[in-house]
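fyi for ur records
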Amino acid sequence: MTRKFFVGGNWKMNGDKKSLGELIQTMNGAKVDSNVDVVCGSPSIYLDFVRSKLDAKFGVAAQNCYKTAKGAFTGEISPAMIKDCGVNWVILGHSERRHVFGESDELIGQKTAHALENGLGVIACIGAKLDEREGGITEKVVFAQTKVIADNVKDWSKVVLAYEPVWAIGTGKTASPQQAQEGSRKAEGLAQDQRI
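which gave:
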């Protein structure tokens, strides 16, 4: 199976209907190569709005979901809710979810399993922080993060591994394209090993 080139854009906690509407209008006018999947990560409150306005040639992703279908989990959203908005992707394991909100590898694995069971595609983020990189444990960290995701994946056609060079975000350090690609290659190799 040959996969398409994948481009994902995470809008994070930014935008309002006016500014997102302008962005959507610009995107809708763009030509996109048929061999490229483009997916935009929208704030959850705008998922319905974005999916209804953004041309179908673009995918939309929620920026997070929870590991269960429903319950007393104030502020969380389920894969079923995401799908009900016409959205088919979710971003899981983003560095901000890991480091700002304290999400564990185990929780990210559980979320991955539940999202996939409910038919969502998963953009699974992995990457090491600066202190981990400087401590020489980048590969160990990326392996642990990838393994818990891989342990919960049966069909890799619905999963995209996104390598985040977290060590280069806001640190003044720069990740070269080669370093980012090397991180992605290592993650792919680790995921490949888990499929055996």
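The two ends are 17 Å apart (CA to CA). thats all i got for now
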